[in-house]
Each structure stands twice: as C-alpha cells, then as structure tokens.
Amino acid sequence: MQVSIESSEGLERKLKVQLPAERVDQEVMQRLEKATKTVSIKGFRKGKVPVRVVKQQYGKGVRQEVVGELINSSLIEAIQQQDLRLVGQPRIDGLLDQEGAELEYLAIFEVYPEFDLSDFSSLAIERPLADVVDADIDRMLSSLREQKATFESVERAAIDGDQLVIDYVGTKGGEEFAGGKAEDQSLLLGSNSMIPGFEDGLVGASQSDQVTLALSFPEDYHSEELKGAAVEFQVTVKDVQAKSLPELDDELFKEFGVAEGGLDKFREEVEGNLQRELGNALRVKIKNRVMEQLFAHNSVELPEALIANETTQLKQQMVQQFGGGQQIDLNMLPDQMFRGKAKYRAALGVIVSEVVRVEELEAGAEAVRARIDEIAETYDDPQQVVDYYYANQEMLKSVEAVVLEDLVVEAVLAKAAVTDQALGYQDAVKPDPEPDYGESNEPVAPETGDAE
Questions:
Q1: Which of 182-201 are b and which e, b meaning 16 or more Cβ less than 10 Å from the residue's Cβ?
Q2: Is the predicted pLDDT of residue 447 greater than 50, yes or no?
Q3: What integer pLDDT is reported at residue 39 of this predicted model?
Q4: Average pLDDT of the segment spanning 134-155
Q5: Does pLDDT of 76 surpass 60?
Q6: What is the pLDDT of residue 9?
Q7: Element (H, E) at 429
Q8: Which of 194, 241, 275, 374 gives 20 to 30 Å between its CA and that of 233?
Q9: Could you give the 3-state DSSP secondary structure of residue 170?
Q10: C-beta separation of 248 from 227 below 8 A
Q11: Rounded to 10 degrees, what is the CA torsion of 240, 245, 250, 255?
C-alpha cells in the first residue's frame, strides 16, 4: 500500500491511497470461489456452479463489497501510518477501480490543530467563595411557605399582594381587540403579569366594583397593532382574596418530605439542599471562569466540522427550549446566529483536550463513582440511579467528561494567579453573564474573567 499527502491547506488534508491490483483481485476471486459452493443458478447443481458463471452473475456486486471494505481498512491503516487526528468522517473522492489495475482513491478530511498551550501562570481568575447562613435558610423557609400559600375571600378593598377574580374587556378606539377579553381570570396584584398600570389601577377596588382603566401598551409590545396604543379596559371585580401563609408546623414539613424531627430537622434539610445548590453553582461558576481564560489565552485554528457540529447542537438546544414540542427543521435557523458561541465551544473542546493530554489527566474510577453518588443522593432510591448510570455507557461517558473538566480546572487553578471573591448566597448561585461574542465571533473577555 502506498500513502501520500496530496495537499495540505489549513486543517484540510487530502490523503492519496493506492492498493496493489492483486490485493483487490485476489480477495474478489476468493469470495467468488466461496460463493460457488452456496449459490443456486438455474442449469447448475448447487455447489457445482463454475466460477466464471458466478462472476458473470455476481462479480460486480462482490467487487463493490470488497472495494468498500478495503477502503475502510486501508484508510484506518493510512491514518495511523501518517499519525493523523481526524475531525469527523472523511470524504472519499477520485476513486479509480478497474480489474487488473491499482485501486486508488483520495480521502479528504480535516485534522485537529496543533498548538502550544499558554502558560497557566498567565491566567488571572477570581475564585468565588460563599457559604449558607441563617438568613439564607430563613429566606428559603419564607419561599416554601409562599409556595403553599392559599387565598381566601375577604370583604375589603384590595391591597397589593391580594388575588382578584375579574372579568375584563379591552377596547381600542371603541372597538374590542384580539386577546383583550377574559372571564373569571385570577390576577395577583403586584405580579406585573399585565401591562403597566393595570394592576395598580385595581388596588383599592372591592368585590362587585366596575373599574375603567385608561392605559397604553408598551412601545416594545409584541403585537404590532398594539405597540404604544391607547386602550381602555372595563373591569369587573368578582372577588377579592387575601393570601394566607401556612404555619411552620409538622403538617407543612410533611408536604416537603420531612415526617418527623420538627422545625430543627426541617431547617437541617433545607440547609442541606442549599449547600448542594451552592456547591454546584460555585463549581459551575469557577469552571466557566477558567474556561473563558483558557479561551482568551489560547489562539486555536478550528476545523469547520467542529464548528458545524457545535452549531447543530446549539440549534437543537434552542428547539428543545423554545419549540414547544414542535418538529422544527433546523435548517430554518441561520448558522450565523449561532456561529460565535459555536466557535467558542469548539475551541474550548480542543483546548481542554490538549490540557488533558499535556497534564496526563485521567478520570479515575473513584472520582467518577463519587460524582455519580453525588447525583444519586438527591433521589429517593440512590442505588437505582447508580445502577442506571453504570448500565448506560453514554451516561457514564458524560460523567467521565465532567470529571475530566474538573481535573482541568484544578490543574489550571494550581498555577494561575487566583484571587478569592467573597459572595453572598444569592449572588453565588446567580450565573455569571455570558461572554460577549461580538460580530467578529470572538468573545470579549471581561476583566474578572467571568463567563456563562
């Protein structure tokens, strides 16, 4: 077999492979001879069909099969011989296949870029630090009570925080407009779920009141017909309901899965959940900051195949998030809309892989099991979750990838210029803003190194 690189431009390679004629012809003949023992052809006894007859009937198909297999096997051999790291599937072109002549083809593909990692000591990273304090637990207890709040009818004027049951009709220029009418609608005053002025105009209203609201739709309203439009709503208040919060007692605790132990046990459970949420948030935050710094300090030429793959994944994520379960053709979404973030993710994939190689990092079995146990402990039956991960190779590989990323973060932090950033719980669990990818598709790194 002869292998040569025909051309090398950027990250594209054209690999020419030539196989001796006898290698192909001998394999074809062997299969045809084997077929003489099994094929049935009219006019011949089974097992007695001459090779020339089998070749006439099946020779073309057998040769195509042999050539296909030889291309696959020889290409793998050629790639190993040239020590190439392919991106995506190669395209086969220029195939020359004739009996008695050399089998020749071109394999066209992209390779991963070669580059030198920047010195980790040149990276400046703020490491977020936070803890759960009593005020955070109290705030969560209040939130849990709000989740279980009920509303009861009261005979008084409505105040902010009350829930009203209303009918309303909206008109523009004296004519009803689409979507401006409802009956028996529940409206929480202060929720800002209606256009500005609507809820404020109902504060002080009582049951059976008729209220006229002269308002205007916002200039940025989604409906073109109603943007900035002056309208009038006729509102009938059918009921005024005051919020009633449950007591912090055993009945409430049971609704959240704490059957005994009272308030102390409930606070302990809440604190444990907050600690888990905080730990995950801090881990994501520092990882994103490290990744952004790695990107900003390493210039990498990217294969278009990697960018295209990331673009497709981003499209799929958008469809899942906003598609409402509809089948949407991904080609309807323009690639340029995702290209900046796709390049960022593709570059990080290449950079992280290089860090793993250079630092000789491995996702050890113990670290992988620890991460799976951490995931499983939030479920009712942790062992069932653990068994599921180890029975599913795809899920297991995803955990291994996360563990490797954590090892990359540790390797970088060990050498980078790190300053600690003290945060309260609320700020710590809030995601950092996404990088500004800019029109040039290159992210603009903020001074703090914050990332998404």
A1: eeeeebbbeeeebbeebbeb
A2: no
A3: 84
A4: 96
A5: yes
A6: 80
A7: helix 425-429
A8: 241
A9: strand
A10: no
A11: 70
Q: Confidence class of residue 451 from pLDDT cuts 50, 70 and 90?
A: very low
d(C-alpha 195, C-alpha 215), whole Å: 8
**Cα–Cα distance measured from residue 311 to residue 304, given in angstroms and rounded to the nearest whole number:** 10
**Residues 108 and 90 sit within 8 Å (Cβ to Cβ):** yes
pLDDT tens by residue, 5-29: 887 788 999 999 999 999 999 999 9
Tokens coding 430: 């809030």
Backbone angles phi, psi at 79, to 5 degrees: -65, -40
Residue 174 C-alpha from the chain's centroid:
48
- What residues pair up with 105 in beta bridges, in sequence order? 17
User: Can you tell me whether residue 129 is helix, strand or coil?
Assistant: strand
Instruction: Considering only the C-alpha atoms of the chain, give the largest distance between any 2 of them, rounded to a whole number of Å.
Output: 103
Amino acid at 301: E
Strand pairing of 124-129 and 417-422? Answer: parallel
How many residues would you count in the chain?
Answer: 452
Of 184, 202, 183, 182, the C-alpha closest to 192 is 202
DSSP 371-402: HHHHHHTTSS-HHHHHHHHHH-HHHHHHHHHH
> Which burial class, exposed, middle or buried, applies to 452 when counting CB atoms under 10 A from its CB (0-12, 13-18, 19+)?
middle
- Residue-level pLDDT at 10: 87
Domains of the chain: 2-111 (3.30.70.1050), 120-134+259-429 (1.10.3120.10), 150-244 (3.10.50.40)
**Would you say residue 448 has pLDDT above 80?**
no
**At residue 319, does pLDDT exceed 90?**
no
> So what's the pLDDT on residue 330?
83
pLDDT digits (tens, 9 = 90+) for 104-129: 999 999 999 999 999 999 999 999 99
Tokens 């959240």 belong to 256
**Alpha-carbon distances, residue 379 vs 252, 269, 370, 395 (angstroms):** 21, 14, 15, 17
Element (H, E) at 234: strand 230-244
Measured between alpha carbons, how far is 258 from 437 in angstroms, rounded to an integer? 46
Distance of alpha carbon 388 from its chain centroid, rounded? 21
Among residues 71, 66, 65, which one has the least CA distance to residue 18?
Answer: 71
DSSP letter (8 states) at residue 117? P
- Is residue 439's pLDDT more than 80? no
Name the residue among 114, 109, 104 with its Cα closest to residue 3: 104
Give CA torsion, residues 157, 163, 167, 171, to 10 deg: 90
* Residues 202, 158 contacting (CB under 8 angstroms): yes
pLDDT digit string, tens, across residues 255-273: 999 999 999 999 999 999 9
The backbone region for 190, taken as left when phi is positive above 0, alpha when psi lies in -120 to 50, beta otherwise, is left
